[in-house]
Design brief:
The protein has 357 residues and is an alpha/beta fold. It folds into 2 domains: 194 residues, Glycogen Phosphorylase B (Rossmann fold, 3-Layer(aba) Sandwich); 158 residues, Glycogen Phosphorylase B (Rossmann fold, 3-Layer(aba) Sandwich). Helices cover 39% and strands 17% of the residues. It contains 14 helices and 13 strands. It has a 7-stranded parallel β-sheet with strand order 3-2-1-4-5-6-7. The longest helix is centred in the first third of the chain and has 19 residues. The radius of gyration is 20 Å and the shape is globular. 50% of the residues are buried. The model has no long low-confidence stretch (mean pLDDT 94).
Length: 357
């Protein structure tokens, strides 16, 4: 199939990944290419050059619109609208069989766009005002909508999801996250350094549990980092940097437990699945999709309860390491995910007006 992948342009689609959305888009493009599809990645022009890129914007927008200026910025909105409008026009004229939309932008959701090219939209976030109405109005025969967890499905459609919407769990390549049979007694945390990811709470809980902790990931919110996280760093709580996939997998695999601290309705939790593939049981706040994703491979604490999370860290460390790896192999592999993507593409492609007439 000839497939357009329309990405989010806040960050580059390249390693080291800024977050789960960038990882999702990169592995989607790479996986579909490996399966023989003709893939064009519509993303920022500074994304990974191994892909054929049709730039939505010349460079990712954080390069010109700093993190603190995102919300309600009229120049940024105009910048994005111009880029996505032109990209949607090129996709409509590009002879694509399907577009997989990961953009979180309203233009690709419009019925005139999905009528031009059958579309699969993956929603990576809980419902929010700027996109909510457009998503709900976009459930038409030429459009399939996916979310990453059952909880997220209920959040977007509390009255019941339309037939065009379904759960599509994210998947990883287990070979990229090698299983390690024994940890070194430490804990690991990974994610963007922002308040809604809660690294400061992970550090506090690890200190109570008496377990060394290494934090990995990009410092997205410098003010938060300097005020809440950096003061907690010492001999046992350390920052390991923002690493590419292979280096991060090696570091995570050495630990004995992974700490997962969503402070919002996390739709999935890709970092937890990556750690589980390495054999790490997870100590997590019971929020968002955490329990749905982690299941028997972890121990849970009420959201925001640091002393309870410390107890969960100690309890999770005692779980057999084969449990998390087996859960990933059973439910969250890249092949399972790509098989489902291809099934969605075939399904929605049959709705082309020329075929349905």
């Amino acid at each position: 199939m000839r497939i357009a992948i329309l990405g989010h342009v806040r960050q580059r689609i390249a390693q080291p990944f800024a977050g789960g959305m960038e990882s999702h888009c990169w592995h989607l493009a790479a996986g579909l290419q490996a399966r023989g599809h003709d893939v064009i990645l519509f993303a920022s022009g500074d994304s990974d050059a191994r892909f054929t890129i049709d730039p939505v914007l010349p460079i990712h927008y954080e390069a010109t619109f700093p993190w603190a200026e995102h919300r309600g910025s009229a120049p940024l909105i105009a910048h994005l609208d111009g880029g996505y409008e032109a990209a949607c026009d090129r996709i409509a004229a590009g002879g694509f069989d399907v577009v997989h939309n990961n953009s979180l932008h309203r233009f690709p959701l419009e019925p005139r766009q999905t009528a031009a090219v059958p579309t699969v939209t993956s929603l990576h976030v809980p419902p929010y005002d700027a996109l909510h109405w457009f998503v709900r109005a976009s459930a038409v025969p030429t459009h399939r909508l996916t979310v990453t967890s059952a909880g997220q499905l209920a959040a977007w459609w509390p009255e019941g999801a339309p037939p065009q919407a379904s759960v599509l769990h994210n998947g990883i390549d287990p070979a990229l996250w090698p299983f390690v049979g024994q940890g070194d007694g430490s804990a690991a945390w990974c994610g963007r350094m922002t308040p809604n990811k809660g690294p400061h709470l992970a550090a506090q809980a690890a200190r109570i549990a008496g377990m060394p902790l290494t934090l990995f990931g990009p410092i997205e919110d410098p003010d938060y980092w300097h005020a809440e996280v950096a003061p907690l760093l010492d001999g046992t709580i350390r920052y390991g940097g923002h690493l590419d996939g292979a280096a991060l997998a090696a570091e995570i695999g050495r630990a004995s437990v992974f700490v997962f601290t969503p402070c919002w309705d996390e739709p999935f939790g890709l970092v937890a699945v990556e750690a589980m593939a390495c054999g790490l049981p997870v100590a997590a706040f019971d929020m968002g999709a955490a329990r749905e994703v982690i299941g028997e491979a972890g121990c849970f604490a009420p959201a925001g309860d640091v002393p309870a999370l410390a107890k969960a860290i100690i309890a999770a460390r005692a779980l057999p390491r084969h449990l998390p790896r087996q859960r990933v192999e059973r439910a969250f592999t890249r092949d399972i995910w790509l098989d489902r993507c291809e099934a969605l593409y075939r399904d929605v492609a049959t709705t082309r007006p020329s075929l349905a007439a």
